[in-house]
């Protein structure tokens, strides 16, 4: 990797830039302060637009689901904007893909290759930069290994200077939405099993690669950190751009019509007021004959630009997984509109309830999507999912406007809804059918004109492990505060030593969640016990007692367990083994439940030393019929073998030179 010298001089704690880099930074610097940047944003929006209405993304931005404006300050996020150029003009920002606590992530065009990439622009504070430098080291190690790895690829990295400081920017291949979006898409009822198997197999392959080939522990495996691939990125970007273009031109048309109808009303009122003798018919004819092409009359219906730097996240759609992407595309192209895009055992993700019945596991459609220990209420996530589908009224939200402008409501709504749906899972099938009637020809010809190749679909879901921002080396752990609560392993909860096998625990929690839509463990605190107490109790109820190894080798065991190995703060436990949970709560066929629990249970071995390794589990019979991956095995690992022969499996390996 490049030698980022920014924070090497720890005695001064001041950024020390290499001279060459500083020179590059000076050239790259586009904005002096946030205010200037905001002003520039408009400039660039206009530059990249057919018209100047492209701030809609921003104005419709739901800021509750985006990064906090408060974090746009020195040391915080960089106020990126569409059209902004990076690395001496090599990368131009196109749209926002997502954000995290360390960074915002943007789709950008790489002018050198002509392809699109994802720019992860890290907050500028020292702690984030240092973490980013570590992340780049880890990613560089991954890149040095050959082959398809199921781990996100780093393409480039550099420093960008902005009003809030110097930001490390990582350039990645472009991926689609994360698995949480997919779980929500299925309304927390579980994914069809063929998809679960594809994801599980690829996730295990990715972890095996990270662990055995790279010496890296991810430490934060969870649905949000596994992203779906989107296949032909350039084709998808083109389709999305075409839809955006269509949406903008429809808006423009709408504005013109509104302007005309207001003009008509004003004229009529004026005429009526000042000169009752004027012939109303001729006045109306004048208005009717006014050409609607050309620049819109900007005096009316122009929403003021908002002075915000928060932009709506618009992840790109994954063809197999988001709102009927292929179906929509087929509609757009008049290409077999009646044919189902996924003519495979996987079924169609868009019709979640339908597809779940096509899987060999019969998941109950019970609407209580809580963790199985907490039947009482909906978790925060589950409540969020109730917003996935729009109220049907939203399709007709601009009815009134349409009537006054005289435009067909479908014509106005279709592109907008369709474009939105591509990134936010918002369209139901019936809406798509409605839409296709009105917009096929125009989009279709646009697509043809632009020469978009749309024949490149298969029906395998491809995933990649992302966000190595918290990852570490098997022989250099950066912190013991690892893993997101629900996916946290028992050894980490107890403050014992941990290693690669902590990732396997999280992977099992994730796979259970894919199958059922529920967290495997969702601890909460009570009046007499803590979240940790509850978490440990849930683990015992599902998997049995904690091994003495853990009780004897962990910092906090005595806070939770008494000398007899019993929980101090929770007396009554209700044992409910995994297989029974699957059969009784989730109505999984008993045979399938046995296979699933045979597969998951070795990953959920409480003793981290005895946990099964990722490579061996790829060979599990439950994954044998994984669609498109039937022959994929890891020949040098044994099924159900533990990973204790892998250096760093359950504890940090010391005595090595630091990375
Ligand atoms: N290569 C990519 N292609 C498309 N979208 C991406 C890509 N990388 C990240 N994203 C989007 O950006 C979001 C934030 O990325 P990431 O999780 O790497 O950032 P972070 O700041 O490290 O977040 P966290 O708070 O989870 O540590 C992701 O959830 C995803 O939606």
- Quaternary assembly: single chain
- CATH fold assignment of the domain at 175-249 and 460-658: Transferase(Phosphotransferase), domain 1
Mean pLDDT: 73
Name given to the CATH architecture of the domain at 175-249 and 460-658? Orthogonal Bundle
CATH class of the domain at 175-249 and 460-658: Mainly Alpha
The CATH superfamily of the domain at 175-249 and 460-658 is known as: Transferase(Phosphotransferase) domain 1
Query: Pairing-aware structural class of the strands and helices?
Result: alpha+beta
* Rg, Å, rounded: 28 Å
Low-confidence stretches: 8-59, 275-306, 333-457
Q: What separation lies between the terminal Cα atoms?
A: 12 Å
Q: Identify every distinct bound molecule in the structure, by name, code or SMILES.
A: adenosine-5'-triphosphate
Strand ordering within the main sheet: 1-2-3-4-6-5
Describe the structure.
Residues 61-73 have a biased composition (Basic and acidic residues). It comes from Tetrapisispora phaffii (strain ATCC 24235 / CBS 4417 / NBRC 1672 / NRRL Y-8282 / UCD 70-5). The protein has 659 residues and is an alpha+beta fold. The chain has helices at residues 19-28, 34-47, 56-59, 126-144, 179-185, 193-214, 233-274, 280-289, 325-332, 352-358, 380-385, 399-405, 409-424, 429-450, 490-493, 501-516, 531-543, 548-552, 557-560, 578-585, 590-600, 614-618; strands at 85-86, 91-99, 103-110, 116-122, 154-162, 165-172, 216-217, 226-228, 463-465, 472-473. Helix 7 crosses helix 12 and helix 20 (578-585) runs antiparallel to helix 21 (590-600). The longest helix has 42 residues, at 233-274. The protein is globular. 47% of the residues are buried. The site of adenosine-5'-triphosphate has 21 residues, from strand 2, strand 3 and strand 4.
